[in-house]
Amino acid sequence: MKKQGFLYGSAVLIISALIVKVIGALFRIPLANMLGGTGMGYFSAAYGIFMPVYAISVTGLPVAAARAVSAAAARGQADGTEAVKRTALSLFGGVGLMGTFIIILGAYPLCRFVSEDISAVPAVIAIAPSVLAGCLVSVYRGCAEGMRDMYPTAVSQVIEGAAKLIFGLSLCYGCLYIAYNEPQLFFRLTGCGRLGISAEDAALPYASAAAVLGITLSSFAGLLYMILRDRREKKRRTDRLSPKERTAVRKELLKTAIPAAVGALVINLTSLIDLVTVMRSLRTLVKASPWVFSELLGSGIAYNDMPNFIYGSFTGLAVTVFNLVPSVTNMFGKSMLPAAAAAKASGDMKRLGECAGGAVLAAALASVPAGLGIAVLAQPVLETLFGGRELEISVCVGAMRALGAAVPFVCISSAAFAVLQAADRADIPVKLMAVGAAVKLLGNIILTPMPKLGVTGAAISTLMCYIFICVMSVHMLKKYAGFGAKDFLCTNLRIFSCGLLCAAGAFFVYSFLSDYGNTVISTAVSCLSGAIIYIISTYFSGIITKSTLKMLIS
User: Fold this and answer.
1) Tens digits of residue pLDDT in 79-97
2) 501 has pLDDT over 80
3) b/e string for 352-362 if b means 16 or more Cβ within 10 A?
4) Does residue 170 contact residue 176 with C-beta atoms inside 8 Å?
5) Backbone φ/ψ region at 542: left (φ over 0), alpha (ψ -120 to 50), beta
């Protein structure tokens, strides 16, 4: 198969990511409207508990497999690529099973002592099998990416997204429908009748679990596709690895996977930090300054339910929008990883520096206007996507502005981490994220209990965390990957200037149109206007040149 260049491979992944994100929006937005802030609190609590274990089990696998396969291909060892796949499947399949059982067995104590709300237990149990499916599908994806073939990853992600949309919304809606229309049947199925509460009040934890179960089913749908594709295209090989060779492959895989997994664990600790500190801080704030939440109290939400409602609004609305851009730009680093690993294996530091420059530049070009646009248009964007949830929007719009400003720093850091992993310095992202998590924790503890900030304090601490990580990751690229930091700084200043023009233009267009049209049309036109301003300004500022295009295409 002909290897795909960086820009081509990135385009394949980005197109699939855009499709997946559209599907994801079609999933998360109706889900938030069905569950509301309280139900999304249970949904997000399950994710907050699940993701650290999932990260340990899964996240390092594509990097490890891609790097090992790419290195074997660069050495001309065609059979070695198949050996890596077989060994990785057996090794990480066991890891996936272990992770699944850890989550199932720990569901109750984790919910009891981490989120202090056992209502999320059904959702945590429902999502546990995703660890096994994620481990196996990540090995298949990583092996394909190591050969610079991004199609399997792209197709499997689209299949997962479509299955999540169908299964997640259907199961959630079905659960709510039964609870509201057939309460006796709901009580028989769940055993909630003895608790003396109405079916409507008891439904949200189970509806959240039903939506999560749809996500689990979607992960197995993606795995099924990868298995069928592998069987169709796999060439029969008679070679068998000796025990010594198999041990060597396992060591090589673990050498990359363990640091990457630990780094991913630290990355996902930020969501766990939010789950623990935000919920606790909000409970303290509700007791100490109830007047801050007078609007919520007037809406009929009880004091005891306010922390979960606010947390669910923050994660279900603001964080959902915040994650859209990084999930797309992450593909730049993933697509660049095989080329960077090959350059490192051959000792070509110049080429490695070009890979680093291309990944970081592409991430900055895409994320700066998007992030700044989200920051200045936080209110209309949330109203456009979640128009039926005005109370939830009022709770999290301030946090949305801070998260929008954090988007460029998250995306640039992610691209830098991918290159550092390819350059045999997977330990650096771990260390940087550990310090960043400490910044996040300290920020949450100090800022979230403030009456004037509340949940916005958690978003500000996220911004502080990723500013530090971004600055340090670029410095490490300069030190270990031959990255031209001075050129990057000059180019990025111009990119940020163009991004500010884009955001300012979008803001003024919306301010003018909002008096004459509805929110959806005004938001769409203002975003389009900002994009046109950004494209024109980047052209005249000389950001895109023949050399930058060559760096991206190669």
Assistant:
1) 556 777 777 787 778 888 8
2) yes
3) bbbbbbbbbbb
4) no
5) left
